[in-house]
Write a structure and sequence with these properties.
This protein has 783 residues and is of the alpha+beta class. The longest helix is centred in the last third of the chain and has 35 residues, at 687-721. The chain contains 29 helices and 28 strands. It folds into five domains: 17-104, Alpha-Beta Plaits (2-Layer Sandwich); 114-241 and 360-413, no CATH class; 252-345, Calcium-transporting ATPase, cytoplasmic transduction domain A (Distorted Sandwich), CATH 2.70.150; 433-460 and 580-681 and 767-774, Rossmann fold; 464-576, Calcium-transporting ATPase, cytoplasmic domain N, CATH 3.40.1110.10. 48% of the residues lie in helices and 16% in strands.
């Protein structure tokens, strides 16, 4: 998908304003009769200050009711009243802040420039690193006491290396600084660019006049450290942008429409209109929402509910886009167009949730808001003060101002957060957990409520045979029948006999699968059935009703599949979706940490209540669609809660994106993994309390790093302004502050060694709450 067109600042030459207005309106879409929504891609957004500036400019327009900028994908979505203003005014407001922008068609993404941007940043980093290494080697010789001729030669060689290298490596900062200055504003890139240019200029002057001091090393080292932070930050941001692409990839590309006069026609999915008949063959995805008009089958609705169990459908049943027809061909009557189908709604919820989530303000961004103005004021004050004190010695005043700019460079602040996140990511990686966005650690620290999905998250996601009254021969026969079905319970039984060599020798004939009932076949001339209790009873000699199903005590979560030979005895196989390893220990550890725990699942009431009972979780919701999950999360957030969502399915993806922070297992859906902030590879849930503790440790170190950087600046800046620090010493001090921050961050490698899960296993388990409470849809439990 690509951007439909690119907006230039102002009207294009020779083009009437009304044509430009029509073009912008055509790319917008209606949210109600008088309101339009427009989306612009703004690639120049780099920090929270950019977000706030754009949102403030747009919100100031009288016809704009809402404006939200998403720093992750660098898009701005605007809701505006079309009768009270123009689309051109929106574009002009963004352009007036100095940002290039592109108008996006509804449902389209901006051009994917992530790989090119990352490549450019890595090239800049490599050039800066090469120059820094070589210039520092030459500088060591000068510091060691080289004679005058050698010193000048080394200074000139350093200049020949540093100037072209810095000109290339500083492009990300220079372009951002020029754009900010061109619109009368400051950002963190302005003092960086100014410090590098002044250091290179004064160093070149000194080298050409055979001066004693040149500071090429300071300039390139400054760029090298800052580019490390910029590369890491960009990489983490870009990992979270592929969820919607994967989601739309699950939609059927086309549909077989049945013509009224007879015959069939294959059309793209977006051409299917309500009222048209569509043929859905076995194994195909349903292209649009509809109602079954002919045929009967079983539908895999895991994309809707997250549950592996299939659902029987026949005439009159509703089916959603994205679900899979497992059995016989069916005819459906379309009830919605593709854009308004279930998948289309999920995509829209994902995008809306991402925009909401992007409003989180990171610690580094909050600190950076006051950095740039303060640095410029101090540097100007130092220059003016020393110009007056020295009787007009501009060179001394310039050196002092450069020293102030360099010694207050944001290396320590710039590395304070990314380096902690890199170390934390490494520690989490050792435990099989992948962090996609560094800001997720900051958000996880604030969590006070955790909402779990059930199937595939708290449980393994597929049933297994846990008990049976069948004899070995009956078990083998049932396993052979199960091998002819795609039903999850049948597949569990097939897995149970997969290692039996005698079962492999059995052959079944006249196999047929009856939607909603089970599988029937003939083996050795005898008819056999596997499936639902009443259907199997039709051929059994004894009444199935007389055979009791296994009844568990307390939190029993078993279900049964029945088997019988014709005129034979009925036997049952008890199935259970087992809890994930470490689920009880993880839940106990999180509860001891003071966190409130809930289950919100698409499964039916019984299984959800049983899992909640077994884990001692008192608050749970069942039968929840994606929109219901988002509504529940919104209710929690309105109540002042900060929520961690843990889920695995496609139906969980919007909720994962809407929560304050989210986590998904690697065994879950692709969309769920892309929407989550954390992805864990193992089966054991003890990674969740471990990650939470790591977030607390990381937050503590981030705050320490920022405090160290502030203390450093409080000591170093007065010394630089007093003329006690040369640019060279300033560069060394700057590098020292960065090393200090990195060293403090490395302590995280040794933090949280006593993993939360280990502590949980050693501690006594908390008693399960005596009372259990079921929430009705739309209600929220009290704190």
């Amino acid at each position: 998908m690509s951007c439909c067109q690119t907006m230039a600042v102002g009207a294009r030459s020779g083009e009437a304003p009304d044509i430009e207005e029509e073009r912008l309106r055509a790319a917008s879409w209606a949210s109600d009769n008088d309101t339009l929504e427009s989306e612009f891609h703004v690639p120049g957004m780099h920090c929270i200050a950019c977000v706030r500036r754009i949102e403030r400019a747009l919100s100031g327009l009288p016809h704009v009711s809402d404006a939200r900028a998403n720093l992750t994908n660098r898009n701005v979505r605007i809701t505006w009243r079309q009768r009270e203003g123009t689309a051109r005014a929106l574009a002009d407001a963004i352009a007036g802040e100095g940002f290039e922008h592109a108008i996006l068609q509804n449902g389209e993404n901006a051009p994917d420039q992530a790989h090119e941007t990352q490549r450019q940043l890595l090239l800049c980093l490599a050039v800066a690193g090469f120059a820094a290494a070589n210039v520092m080697l030459l500088s060591v010789s000068v510091w060691a006491g080289a004679d005058e001729a050698t010193r000048q030669l080394f200074h000139l060689i350093s200049g020949l290396i540093a100037i072209p290298a810095a000109a290339y490596a500083m492009r990300p900062f220079l372009s951002s600084a020029l754009a900010a200055l061109g619109n009368g504003r400051l950002n963190m890139d302005v003092p960086i660019t100014l410090a590098v240019i002044l250091a290179l200029g004064m160093s070149s002057y000194e080298a050409l006049r055979n001066g004693e001091h040149a500071y090429f090393d300071a300039a390139v080292m400054l760029l090298f450290f800052l580019l490390i932070g910029r590369v890491l930050d960009h990489a983490m941001r870009e990992r979270a942008r592929d969820a919607v692409k994967l989601l739309t990839g699950l939609a059927a590309k086309g549909a077989v429409v049945l013509l009224p006069e007879g015959g069939q026609r294959y059309v793209p999915t977006d051409k299917v209109r309500p009222g048209e008949r569509v043929l859905v063959a076995a194994g195909e995805r349903v292209p649009v929402d509809g109602v079954v008009r002919a045929g009967a089958s079983e539908i895999d609705r895991s994309v809707v509910t997250g549950e592996s169990a299939s659902v029987a459908v026949d005439v009159g049943a509703e089916v959603e886009a994205g679900t899979v027809n497992l059995g016989q061909p069916i005819e459906i009557e379309a009830t919605k167009v593709a854009a308004q189908s279930f998948l289309g709604e999920v995509v829209q919820m994902m995008e809306a949730a991402e925009h909401s989530k992007a409003r989180f303000v990171r610690i580094a961004d909050r600190v950076a808001q006051i950095y740039a103005p303060a640095v410029h004021i101090l540097a100007v004050a130092a220059f003016i003060g020393w110009l007056w004190a020295s009787g007009g010695d501009w060179q001394l005043a310039a050196y002092t101002a450069i020293a102030v700019l360099i010694i207050t460079c944001p290396c320590a602040l710039g590395l304070a957060v990314p380096i902690v996140h890199v170390v934390a990511a490494g520690r989490l990686f050792e435990r099989g957990l992948f962090m996609k966005d560094g800001s997720a650690l900051e958000k996880l620290r604030q969590v006070d409520t955790i909402v779990f999905d059930k199937t595939g998250t708290l449980t393994g996601g597929r049933p297994d045979v846990v008990a049976s009254d069948a004899a070995p021969a009956e078990r083998r026969l049932a396993g052979v029948l199960a091998g002819h079905s795609r039903h999850p319970s049948a597949q569990a039984l097939a897995r149970a006999v997969a290692g039996d060599p005698e079962a492999h020798a059995i052959r079944a004939s006249r196999v047929r699968e009856v939607a909603g009932s089970g599988v029937e076949a003939a083996i050795g001339g005898r008819r056999m059935r596997l499936g639902r209790r009443a259907w199997v009873a039709e051929i059994a000699a004894a009444s199935v009703e007389a055979t009791q199903e296994p009844v568990g005590l307390g939190c029993d979560r078993t279900s049964s599949v029945w088997f019988a030979e014709e005129d034979g005895r009925p036997v049952s196989f008890a199935m259970q979706d087992a809890l994930r390893p470490g689920a009880r220990e993880a839940i106990d550890a999180l509860r001891r940490g003071g966190l409130k725990l809930e289950i919100v699942s698409g499964d039916v009431d019984g299984p959800v209540e049983e899992v909640a009972c077994e884990l001692g979780i008192s608050t749970f919701l069942a039968n929840q669609r994606p929109a219901d999950k988002i509504a529940h999360l919104d209710a929690l957030r309105r109540a002042g809660r900060n929520v961690l969502m843990v889920g695995d399915g496609l139906n969980d993806a919007p909720a994962l994106a809407a929560a304050n922070v989210s986590m998904a297992p690697s065994s879950g859906s692709d969309v769920g993994r892309q929407a989550a902030d954390f992805v864990f590879a193992g089966q054991n849930l003890d990674i969740i309390p471990f990650c939470y503790r790591m977030a607390l440790d990381a937050d503590r170190l981030v705050r320490q790093n920022i405090a160290l950087a502030v203390v450093y600046n409080c000591i170093a800046v007065p010394m630089a302004m007093a003329g006690l620090v040369t640019p060279l010493i300033a560069a060394i001090a700057m590098s020292g502050s960065s090393v200090m921050v990195v060293a403090n961050s490395m302590r995280l490698k040794f933090a949280a060694r006593g993993a939360a899960s280990d502590e949980a296993r050693e501690a006594e388990r908390c008693a399960a709450p005596k009372g259990r409470r079921i929430l009705e849809p739309g209600l929220t439990a009290g704190r």
